[in-house]
């Protein structure tokens, strides 16, 4: 297959390109500058120079491939940029598979283990995703082939949000932050496992929705204690109130404070997804 990827130079994107290439696919990837072009080239993709806001380029790039995986995100006006990019890619892809990235944070606190059909109550940081995802999925009714993948909190290979907001501060201060008493559960997924789901999602029926989560439900306290080992300060954590976390981390602290537990059964049953990483705490402690 020929696959077009946005966000290919990012933490998840690089591994997604590698996985697609390993399976014999030809991959083109959006690249906003020389550095991004070199990064996607190094992992086996052909760079397509342009910005996520260049909807004409996105529409054209999606015309000549067999599938699209949209991983890129914009820090400025993320709601508008995400929707415009998604609609341009869907227009170009016509009836070819288009895999859109969401995230399980849109569900808010889950009050137990839930699946993709649970009520959604997002924190303010991700509230805009609801309307965008509805618009994307509605394209299945007019001949499009959208598929929504909602990753949990992605970890692995010393990267991602956990590295930025927990491990790096731990290295700098000698204690990894923990919001509140840490009794809330986090929905985690290893980078390699979510990449495998993105690849499988190219074969999913139009309108499908998948939570990309492992079935492990560690508490935030368990995770931060594991991360303290990766940060070089074993067993050392510091408690932050939510207000303190908001001041230190910004609005994302509200998402880290959520209590979430999910099942990834739908992806396993429908797509044959088999998450390989079954000991998140050990992986996190070793930076794997």
Automatic annotation (TrEMBL):
Domain of life: Bacteria
Residue ranges constituting the NAD-dependent epimerase/dehydratase domain according to the UniProt record: 3-206
Pfam family for this entry, one: Epimerase
GO cellular component, one term: cytoplasm
Gene Ontology MF terms in the entry: aldehyde dehydrogenase (NAD+) activity
Gene3D superfamilies noted in UniProt: NAD(P)-binding Rossmann-like Domain
Protein name per Swiss-Prot or TrEMBL: Nucleoside-diphosphate-sugar epimerase
Species of provenance: Actinopolymorpha pittospori
